[in-house]
Amino acid sequence: MGNLIAKHRSIWGDDPSSLLQSYTVYPGLTGKLDRLKGSTLNRETLYEIVLWKLGRFPEVEDSLIEDLKTVSKLEPKGHMKARDLISRLLRSPGIALPMASTILRFLNPGTFQIIDERAYRVLFPGKPKYPSKPVNASVEYVNTSIEMYFQYLDELHRISSKKLPFEMADRILYQLDILLGNKLDSTNLATHSTRTRRKRRAGQRGR
Predict the structure, then answer these.
(1) pTM score, two decimals?
(2) Which of 57, 73, 94 is the endpoint of a domain?
(3) N or C: which end of the chain has fewer CB within 10 A?
(4) Which of 57, 73, 98 delimits the end of a domain?
(5) Angstrom distance (rounded) from CA 112 to CA 71
(6) Are 80 and 107 found together in one domain?
(7) Domains in the chain: how many in total?
(8) Looking at the predicted structure, is the pLDDT value of residue 198 above 80?
(9) Per-residue pLDDT for 191 more than 70?
(10) Residue 205 domain-assigned (yes or no)
């Protein structure tokens, strides 16, 4: 151990623990998990541990969570009234358009549906997919994502019927894309930005 400390003295001097001052991985969640007592473990905390390690933990303000409760009151085709909420979701670390749409869909499936690579491809074959989220969500990214999501919802309403109900359209189109033999793009834009994950997992190697 002494040799290791000496080997990297140019980085940490004589105090390896000094590196903890620059360790900024999910500070709020990390502090919470560091205070965890094994006897209090529950399913929610277990999921938080898993998401912490995967670097996929979303950071959402309490005020936004409270405001999202109003989504359930929106009527079908009233999705444009949620523009501000969607914008706030997209600006939240760890939440890109597919995740934002998933949150909205479970809060109000009659008004919102999940947008992902498979469903989008069936609905808009050959068209460029929605943008991936940059490390710092720009105004352009947010506005473009919202407009594409609204177009997606409008088109879902257009094709929906009793046989293809809007409330289940995302799942039906998702399954259809699988049965059509389509493959997920390894660089598909429906996932969280790789750059975001790398930034948030910086310093996590070896854990």
Answers:
(1) 0.78
(2) 57
(3) N
(4) 57
(5) 9
(6) yes
(7) 2
(8) no
(9) no
(10) no
206 in a domain, yes or no? Answer: no
**Contact of 167 with 110, CB cutoff 8 Å:** yes
**H-helix or E-strand spanning residue 152:** helix 139-159
- Is residue 202 domain-resident? no
List the one residue out of 126, 169, 131 whose CA is nearest residue 147. Answer: 131
Domain span at residue 32 reads 2-57
CB atoms within 10 A of CB 49: 14
Task: Tell me the pLDDT tens digit for each residue of 29-69.
Answer: 999 999 999 999 999 999 999 988 888 788 899 999 999 99
**For tokens 């660089």, what's the residue?**
187
Same domain, yes or no: 76 and 118: yes
Cα distance between the two ends of the chain: 18
HSE-CB for 97 with a 13 A CA cutoff: 26
Q: Which of 29, 8, 33, 3 has the alpha carbon at shortest distance from 18?
A: 8
Gap between the Cα atoms of 200 and 207, Å rounded: 14
In angstroms, the CA 126 to CA 11 distance is 51
Query: CA nearest 15: which of 6, 23, 28?
Result: 6
Asked if residues 61 and 95 have their Cβ atoms less than 8 Å apart, the reply is no
Asked if 178 and 88 sit in the same domain, the reply is yes
